[in-house]
Amino acid sequence: MPVRQDKYNRLFTSSLILSSPTIAVLFALVILHLIAWQAALISGLLILVGTGYILNSHYSHVERLKEYITALRQLKGRDTLPEPPSAVGSFLYPELNSTLSRMAQERQQYRRQLEDVTDGNEAILRSLPDPLIMLGSKRKIIRGNPAAETIFEDQLAGKELSTVLRNPSILNTIDELEKSQKDISRFVDFKIHGRVERYLQARIARMPEQTWDGTKVIISLHDLTSAKRVEQMREDFVANVSHELKTPLASLMGFIETLKGPAKDDPDAQQKFLKIMQDQSERMSRLVSDLLSLSKIELLEHTPPTSVTDLGEAITTIIEGLHTQIESKNITIRRDMDDVISVLGDLEALTQVFQNLLENAVKYGHQGTTVTIRCKSYGPGSQGMRRLGRPSVAISIIDQGDGIPREHIPRLTERFYRVDAARSRELGGTGLGLAIVKHIVNRHRGVLTIDSEVGRGSTFTVYLPQAAITEGQRKPININEVNF
């Protein structure tokens, strides 16, 4: 009601103002006795009513135009334009409808073009393989593309850069560029520390002008990890091969000289030496194979796998493959895997991890003992959740062997580190198995823990991220014992 009353007040006031000059003339004519006051009164009322009628039609048209403009403002880029209001009854400016309609069509077309450009830019930004971070004032992150959020494992928008990238060289460079008035860029090489080290090069560029979303500085990151690892792999391979192959090569050369000389006509000595030479050759072959495998794993360590692996099936396959070794030592394999859950991981790589750990458990376990494989899932608030920061699965391999002294445990995953070098070589070990396990677990963003007690045995536990699966996909495996 107040709106309607306001409309009538405005209409009456406007009509009175517009009619006032004519009414004033009629009043003057009455004073000059040129017209009767009755005729003047009737003429004035007719003029006032006619003006009000014209203005009422105009105001109604303006109200319809106002509603039309409001509807236009609420449109999105792909919405259909509303119909313009009818110009019927508009005496003052009937062309206003068509003018507004053309303007709305041009605006809609321009908006759609802008949205197409924006969608294209968004698609390009999302598909960029290199991380990209856009900064506003005071190093505030406006946004980051999916590659950037993957590498920092976090949502970036709205955060201060130093909370996700604590590198003084980069932060100081950004501050200098913000104060500069020139459109320049700089390069900074840096390293991200963590379970897996990554080498990156940052290109920091200042925008000529602040963009509509507030972006002033753009940081593009180029991953140099692969190139650095290839270089390091080459250096390590040469150093390790030259060191580890020196002894077996010297032995082979010595036996060859002996076979050519003193043992030339001694069949028994020849058979003995040839057996030793075969063992040394096989050891060198295993060593080179493990070195190549380790180098390949390190090369891919910075790229976590995204596939899903069923650990129950993988471990069953490994046990079947170790049938001969298990049978020769009369080992019992006990599987405590009621809670087996699929994990995020590469099947081939995880098979290599548990192949190595189970083979070690059988190799170093005492004759006639039990090797236990235990699997347990950890949800929110549990130990495994705290270790990885997300739901996890812990797979433990428990043997009953001699155990490992405490002082040796921190160094077990180092290359070529052996608690008992002579026994390790005698059992065919290269000293690289646990190093391979560590790097594969790191690539899976997992954790390897080792616990051991001398005289009782050792426990190797691997924590891996759980894969998101439904209840129907779970495959419980009851506790059972497998004897060979």
Automatic annotation (TrEMBL):
PROSITE patterns per UniProt: HIS_KIN
Pfam families with a match to the protein in the record: HATPase_c, HisKA
SMART domains assigned: HATPase_c (SM00387), HisKA (SM00388)
Keyword Membrane part of the UniProt annotation: yes
Domain Histidine kinase as annotated: residue spans: 240-468
UniProt catalytic activity: ATP + protein L-histidine = ADP + protein N-phospho-L-histidine
Single biological process term from Gene Ontology: cellular response to phosphate starvation
Family matches, as InterPro entries: BphY/WalK/GraS-like, HATPase_C_sf, HATPase_dom, His_kinase_dom, HisK_dim/P_dom, HisK_dim/P_sf, PAS-like_dom_sf, Sig_transdc_His_kin-like_C
Protein's UniProt keywords contain Nucleotide-binding: yes
Compartment list: Cell membrane
Transmembrane segments: 12-31, 37-56
Entry GO CC: plasma membrane
An example Gene Ontology molecular-function term: phosphorelay sensor kinase activity
Coiled-coil ranges (or none): 93-120
EC number: 2.7.13.3
Keywords, comma-separated and alphabetical: ATP-binding, Cell membrane, Coiled coil, Kinase, Membrane, Nucleotide-binding, Phosphoprotein, Transferase, Transmembrane, Transmembrane helix, Two-component regulatory system
Main location: membrane
CDD domains associated with the record: HisKA
PANTHER family per the UniProt record, alphabetical: PHOSPHATE REGULON SENSOR PROTEIN PHOR
Protein name as catalogued: histidine kinase
